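Run Tripartite tricarboxylate transporter substrate binding protein through structure prediction, thanks.
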Amino acid sequence: MNKRELLRTGAFACAAFALAGAGQAQDFPPKKPVTMVVGFAPGGAADAAARLIAKKLGDNIGQSVVVDNKAGAGGNIAHQLVANGPADGSMILLGSIGPLTIAPHMMKVGYDPFKDLAPLSGGVNFPNVLVVNANSGIKSVADFVALARKEAGSVTFASTGPGSASHLTGELFAQQAKVEMTHVPYKGGSAAMPDLLAGRFTAYFAAPPTALPHIESGKLTPLATTGLARPAYMPNVPTVAESGYPGFEALNWYAFVASAKTPAPLLDRWNQEIVKVLNDASIREQLLKHGLTPQPTTRAELGDFIRKESAKWGAIVRDRKITGE
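Sure, done. The structure for Tripartite tricarboxylate transporter substrate binding protein is below.
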C-alpha cells in the first residue's frame, strides 16, 4: 500500500470513528439513568411537577428518570450544575422563572441563561396565591395593605429565595400598593410554609400546591391570586387585579432546559418526549389537580418566552433596585 493509499485509509478511519462517536453522543434514550434536576427542596410546586412528569417520561422512554433536588440560591445552584453538566442528554433541568429571567439581572450567576442553557419545552405555569396565617386577623388585600402602611417595614413576606418568582411578585405588589415590606428568603416553598403556619412572618405569595392543603384545612387565609383571572380551583378568591390593582399579573412557571452543549438532535428528541407527556390526558389531569397548568411548547417558542420574561422582570429589578441577598 503506497503513501497516498495509507493516507486515504486513515482519513476514512478517522471519519468513521467521528461518525460513530457522534452517533453514540446522540443515543436516545441515554445508556445511563436520566437525572431531572430541580432547584428546590422536595415538597414544593417544582418538585410535585417534576415527579409526575419524570415518572411518565421514564415509562415512555424505557429508562429511569431520577429527580435530583439541588436546593439553594433560589434555584441558581441547580441551573449552574446543569449548564456545566453532561451534554449527552442524561441530565435535564426543570428550570424556573427566577434563575432563568430574574437572578441574572440581580447578581453574578455562574451561567448565562441564553448561552449556557438550551430550551427544551415549557413545563407548567400557575398564579401564586397571597396567603396569611388564619390567626393573623387579615381577611383581605385591603387589610394587608392597611397593616403594611400602619407598621411600615414590619410586615414580612417569604419567598423561595432571592430572585425567585415569589420574591419578585412581592416586590411588584409593594411597588403597585406603595408599601414597604421586608423580604424573608427560604430555600423553597416546603421550607417556608412551616414558618408561616407558626406565624413567624406575615405573608407569602405561595405556589398553589404548597398552599392549598393548608387553605382547605383552615390554617391559612387566601387573600388574592396573582393571575388576571381566578383559577378554577380557587373560584371564590379574588385576584390582586380585582382587589384594587388593575392589570396586576405575575405568573410563576417552570420550563425544561438542558446544557447548551447538548447536540441539537438530542434537544429536539427531549422536546418531543416532554411535549408528549404534557399532552397526556392523565398527566394533565394530575397537574391541574395540583393547580399547575401544563404548558408544552416548541423549543423556539420557549426561547422567545424566556427572553420576553427576562425583559419584563429585569425592568422591575432595576426599578426596585433589587440585589442578591
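The longest helix spans residues 3-25.
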